[in-house]
Amino acid sequence: MTPIVTVLAGILVADLIAAPIGAAAASVGTFVRWATVLQPFWMGILVSVVIGVALTLPISSAAICAALSLTGLAGGAAVAGCCAQMVGFAVMSFKENRWGGLVAQGVGTSMLQMPNIVKNPKIWIPPTLASAITGPLATCLFKLEMNGAAVSSGMGTCGFVGQIGVYTGWVNDVANGAKAAITGMDWAGMVLICFVLPAVLSWVFCQVLRKKGWIKENDLKLDL
User: Fold this and answer.
1) Does 73 have pLDDT greater than 90?
2) What 8-state DSSP symbol labels residue 193?
3) Who wins on pLDDT, 52 or 10?
4) Residue 60 forms part of a structural domain
5) What is the total count of domains within the chain?
6) What one-character-per-residue DSSP string does 74-126 give?
7) Structural domain that includes position 171
């Protein structure tokens, strides 16, 4: 009886609230995309930081992006934020976690750091600051857009789904005539926003906090 009641209750609740929630999420997503085009600098910071933080939290940033249909410039900012968290934590904790930690966080998920964040929230500062920088660079300088599947906007470097989504968007844009060709600037933007800048910025910020004593030895150690 328990599974039957559970399933039926879920169906009933979904029937009552799914449509309004879906409509509300679509409206919010439309507003975020519009606002990012209108104010790419400030919205680039906001979207990058918020979605990046959501990726590291024990919630699904990919589901949020999918629900909001976060594509275009807003999707590009989301990719930047997620990459900043994943690559940032992977690089700044390399001393403690070596190659296993680099792969687990950089290609897996920065959520692995949540137990350490609970112990010392200051370790979250470097990748979050990095996302606040790479977000507006993505929207204003490189015009990095996610025109692939919206869910890819919230995946970052997890299985390189974010980068595959951006590339798929480029291919679709070229096929549709919206883009003449995939340029060197496109590739440079992806590499810098998704890998190089998150690694460098997070490492630099982390070193500053280590010297201040805010981040101590083994604060970033994972139980691998």
Assistant:
1) yes
2) I
3) 52
4) yes
5) 1
6) HHHHHHHHHHHHHHHHHHHTHHHHHHHHHHIIIII-GGGGHHHHHH-GGGGHH
7) 2-212
